[in-house]
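Pipeline run #58 for the internal structure catalog. This entry was flagged by the ingest filter as a single-chain record with no existing model, so it goes straight to prediction. Upstream metadata was stripped on purpose; only the residue string is passed forward. Reviewer on rotation: M.T. Logging verbosity set to normal.
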Amino acid sequence: MLKILTLICALIGLLAAISFETWIRSRIVRNETSAESYAEVKSRKSEFWSIQYVPLIIILTLLAVVLFVFVGHLNAAVFLGGAALCFVSVITGASTVVTGSISSSSTAVSGDIRNALKTAYRSAAVMGLSVSSIALVGLGILFFFLKRDQLVDLIASFALGASVVSLIIGLSGTAFSGAYALTVRSDDFTDYTGSFIGSGADLVETYILSACSAALLSGVAVDTSGVMSTFSATSAARYPLIVYAGGIIASIIGIMAYRGYIVKRPAAGLTAGNIIAAVLIAAVAVYFSNDLLQSYVYGICVSIGLLASLISGEASKAYSIDGAVFKRFLPDVKKTGVSQSMIYSLSIGMISVIIPAVLTTTAMVIAYMFANFYGIALAAIGINSMAAVNSAVRGFSINTASASDIASVSDPDAESPNPADVLLTASAATDSVGKTYSGVAAYVTLVAMYTALSVVANNPAINLLSTPVFTGITTGAVIVFVCAGFIIRSIRLTSQVLGARMSDSFDPEKRITALRGIFPLFAISLLVPLAVGAAGGVNGLIAFSCSAAVTGMCVIFTLNNAGRHYDRLATETLGTIIKVMVAVTLVFAPLFMKFGGIF
């Protein structure tokens, strides 16, 4: 019965995505300007995807061979299955990257700003619904048709496949959109194709990894329940999928609740949709917690994650919205120059770490008190169960920013209220909120993965002053900043090639070869964890994962709220890289448990 229920909810999510996509296409105001913009964005989308296939094929092939030789042939097959699932879900959801911004901009320029805002929101929801629904189908196949022992052996490889694809697409997206932002001309518009697709890749990665962490910790649920034999580890592993299924339906209801609001507060009403979805998900989680696991505490852990995410998102407005507490004294760029504004923005970002850090840590501690390590995994499940509606908020910010650029080019002299200004205001009001949702989801999922690694490694005692552990802690912290540096480098290299493309000297047959700047990040993400394991064994891996997760969390939340000069380095880039590194440690931990490390 649960298999059928999960599949039905996933299919409903896909049908809703198709319905929204059809509605969005009908919103485009057909004229010469919108036709030109549509063709340009479509061309940029094709250009983006054309540079994905070669690195995807090369890296996936190499990793599949490594898994086949050192881990097992089934692990290699499941790894490729996770990669295919991630790619299909992202490329399906990315269908609205063209229609979303064009529909919003053309509708706004025609004077219907309310429908323009609703269009931007629903087009972003297509990505969230597509990703979560397709991912749920893939997870359902694994969780319902494999025995738990098989699932535990294979699930980390499946997660790694999804993570690698997310890494490639997410990093490419950051370089692509960041480069356009640096090279855009006054008569052109910034390209947000990469940002939109990258956010979807990050979403599906976190969605899958949290479910995998819960499966690895399902045995802990039984061992620490206090009511042994009343439920099985198999039931504990499958419970998160029921929460995910309920999350899809709840997200559709929350998405439908947003109708578009007044010009002065164009982002008003988005929070209501998230609250509606969260309440419905909590109700589903609590009901099935008692039904499957004979206790309400597991549903409470899910609800705690939901609450921490919602409060963190709302609190982030204090650091991001003009006129809010911390933005009130932001220097005027025209009077003081860009440098002082950047310095103050960075200070705001650093201060902003305290709210999500305290909230998420408190939530995880409470979840641990209720259900041990399994409770932390369920807190992550709660946050990620809102994937569709959270993606709608994140994508709404990206779509309205893109639509604002297009509207300013197509109708620069529009009368008040200027559509471009209204769309830009809507984007600014939700930008930090959407990124905070993604950051909180990534952080709690990373902690769940780290605890799963500890359990897989039989929870060894760790001496902080031992050589392997201290080396792992230092490496995990340092590598976060090294990756940030390479991300900046890849954006710079890509912008140079895009700048050449806009000049007469550019060869139109030449692809954006400057994306080679992201290849060092691939190597770092895959090889550094293996080097740490080889040097320090499984204790070094655990220390490395913990340090990278905590340091990465601080850096991500800092950059999220530090303004447009820094935020491209955050969730969809650093967060993705760290999740890949921890996924690598999970896959190869048994190998290092067997052979140990040099130290």
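catalog note: Residues 302 and 382 are 4 Å apart (CA to CA).
catalog note: The chain has 21 helices and no strands.
status: ready for reviewer M.T.
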